[in-house]
Amino acid sequence: MIKNYGYVRVSTKEQNPDRQLKAMAEAGIECKNIFMDKESGKDFDRPAYKRMLRKLTKDSVLFIKSIDRLGRNYREIMEEWRYITQIKGADIVVLAMPVLDTRRHKNLMGTFISDLVLQLLSFVAENERCNIRQRQAEGIAAAKKKGVRFGRPQKPVPDNFHLQCKLWHSGQCTLAQAAAACQMPLSTFYSKCRDVMK
């Protein structure tokens, strides 16, 4: 008996998987057979994906909404596709791209067309991931130029910090004594003093 499974992935916990879940419901996939990850598609080290993979047999069909839900790494998508269809013997249906349905056209021409489309879409998925990374890097660089600071906001130094920093720098007290007087960890006091003295 053929077992249908669905795989749904969103990149972050904030993203909404409803569109993919709706597509699975319309394809007739039972809720108990839908596996969902809220993780990046950069690799296949995802808990729900691994559980789903263990379930697949030669009598299984895996449904995904689009190829980028499977992953975003061109080489790994190709390897995973071949592992599922050739080693596991399961079929794959990409709902947004009907030509990528391994249940159809089991002849040489059908396989050739599917492979060609898969390679193209896998390339596009990875290219989009590269573009996202580049846009992020450009956005961060532009924000830094404008003076935006990233990370946790720094705690203000205590009122006596500058005095203790001068005392330590002039040798009138030890680093440990100055840090203790400011109620600061030794390493924090030291690095902030070095910044002030620059």
TrEMBL record:
What GO biological process term is on the record, naming one?
Answer: DNA integration
Record-annotated Resolvase/invertase-type recombinase catalytic domain positions: 3-147
Q: Which GO terms describe its molecular function?
A: DNA binding; DNA strand exchange activity
Q: Which residues form the active site?
A: 11
Mind telling me which Pfam families this protein's record contains?
A: Resolvase (PF00239)
The residue range of the signal peptide is: none
Keyword vocabulary terms for this entry: DNA integration, DNA recombination, DNA-binding
**Is the keyword DNA-binding in the record?**
yes
Protein's organism: Selenomonas ruminantium subsp. lactilytica (strain NBRC 103574 / TAM6421)
Task: Please verify whether the record's keywords include Protease.
Answer: no
Q: What is this protein called?
A: Putative recombinase
